[in-house]
Specification:
Helices cover 50% and strands 9% of the residues. With 193 residues, the protein is mostly helical.
Length: 193
């Protein structure tokens, strides 16, 4: 049997009266043990009728099918987030930081492609070349190249990965200390309607 409640209906006799020892109404039977869908498992009255009332049986049947009583709203639970495991916070922040690193590199690549197509880097390289030749040094070399742009973006991204991972881990440690002092973050969870 499953863990959820199921309902059992027995056949009535031809005369319209229930057979001795059978149940004529639908009743819920818990699936985790206790009462089974075998004869003699359900409590009956004097003439084979169940001891519970018919509305109680219908209410139990409504709970068995939908998981909650008919006409009742969703269940709610108020919980406190008291402790966050530091090692799991470190792992998830590291993985998210690495994912953001790759997003950063793609964004820099797209931005570099757009600005290069517009001729911004050619103009800047010409300007730096003119400034270098005016100051007396040979300025025939480009200052802004794809290697410099992507190398600088990779260094900035690696620093961000380290800082974000450390910040999330330290933040988790501080949260655990504060929740020990004043209690954790209170959450209210409810079922869907």
């Amino acid at each position: 049997m499953s863990d959820r409640q199921s309902s059992v209906r027995t056949q009535d006799t031809a005369a319209g009266e229930p057979a001795p020892g059978s149940v004529s109404t639908t009743q819920a039977i818990p699936g985790t043990g206790g009462l089974r869908a075998q004869g003699g498992g359900l409590p009956t009255g004097t003439a084979g009728t169940p001891t519970g009332s018919a509305p109680a049986a219908k209410k139990a049947q409504g709970r068995g099918r939908g998981g909650k009583a008919a006409g009742r709203g969703p269940r709610r639970a108020r919980l406190q987030l008291r402790h966050i495991d530091i090692w799991s916070a470190f792992k998830i922040s590291l993985v998210l930081s690495i994912a953001l690193f790759f997003i950063w590199m793609v964004a820099v690549g797209i931005l570099y492609g757009v600005l290069s197509a517009l001729g911004v880097f050619d103009t800047l390289n010409d300007l730096f070349g003119q400034l270098g030749s005016a100051s007396g040094s040979g300025g025939g070399k480009d200052v802004i190249t794809p290697g410099i742009v992507f190398g600088g973006a990779a260094v900035i991204g690696a620093i961000n990965v380290i800082l974000m991972t450390a910040l999330c881990t330290v933040g988790t440690f501080i949260y655990n200390l504060c929740s020990d002092l004043v209690g954790g973050l209170e959450l209210t969870l409810s079922e869907r309607d």
